[in-house]
Amino acid sequence: MKSTETGVLKKSNLYFSSPSPTARELYYYPVSAGHFFCKEGYHLVRKNYDSLLISHIIDGSFTFIQNGTPITAHKGDTVILDCFKPHEYYTEDSNETIWIHINGQNCKAIYNQIVKNGGNIIKCSDSNNIQKLLFSIYDSLSNENTPNEAELSLKIYKILLELLNPVQIKSKGNVSNEDSVEYAKRYILDNLYEKLSVSQIADAVHMSTSHFTRIFKSQTGLSPYDYVLVSRLNRAKEYLQETDLSISQIAYEIGFNSESNFIYFFKKNTGLSPKKFRKLKF
Which value, to the nearest 10 degrees, does the dihedral of the CA atoms of residues 30, 170, 125, 36 take? Predict the structure, then answer.
């Protein structure tokens, strides 16, 4: 559809999305997406839009207000803004942008970490990939067919991961470190039933705990501890959907010392109890 905002050229388009209850509970999901061509005079001021904005500047400039100060991004930059609270942005000359508004589980937490790591303007080492992912989401919303929400969530996650730690993810550099991290990931997945500690995993790859933690996060975007938690959560989802194991059995299979601790962990991270998750149809 066409935008009626001042300064947005007629060749611009935007689309909206209505996520399913499952997407709201479990996924990252797009709220809207657009490919805008703007001229001087485009200026948006809004109290809130209940989402994060990710905007990649294809050409021109994009200025937003941060604590009363204008900050300008340029061609090749990617901007992420918290639109849950009042926000303002505009162009001083003209621009072309591909953008999405997103929401979902853990959005605010990952936004805070992105800004903590690199601010609201991110210079991704592979800006073409960011642009490609954004256009892919935009194209999915423009299609008359209902988009695959799991695939959209994965694409959004890939974008967030790039923004979370863009340089380190792309600049691994040391082959031996890459091999060590891959071995560590396999070690974690093979030993989820154990009470894994970071020092135990570091010992398995013959590194000090501090060095291993730094290398692991630089290549995966997650701390070893968070990677273990995510792996346990994913393994639990597989067991719930693909086996008849009891909740108690699953808890012990993925390293929890009690069923109640597992249920608390699962519900905290998915918004659903294991029993309710098992009943979902994918």
Answer: -20
Take residue 9 and report the two structure tokens written for it. Answer: 């050229």
Q: Give CA–CA dist 201/175, Å, rounded.
A: 19
Q: Are strands 87-90 and 52-66 parallel, antiparallel or unpaired?
A: antiparallel
Those residues whose C-beta lies under 8 Å from the C-beta of residue 71, and which sit 6 or more positions away, are 63, 64, 65, 120, 121
- Mean pLDDT of successive 10-residue stretches along the chain, which has 282 residues: 86 92 92 94 92 95 89 91 95 94 92 86 82 94 84 93 64 58 89 88 84 88 91 92 92 91 91 90 60
CB contact set of 46 (below 8 Å; sequence gap of 6+) = 83, 86, 87, 88
Entry pTM: 0.60
Q: Which two tokens stand for residue 70?
A: 């204008």
H helices present in the chain, as ranges: 21-26, 107-118, 127-142, 149-164, 166-170, 175-190, 198-204, 209-220, 224-242, 247-253, 259-270, 274-279
- List CB contacts of 56: < 8 A, sequence separation 6 or more: 77, 78, 79, 97, 98, 99, 127, 130, 131, 134
Q: Is residue 60 a contact partner of residue 96, using CB atoms and an 8 Å limit?
A: yes
Distance CA 120, CA 72 (A): 10
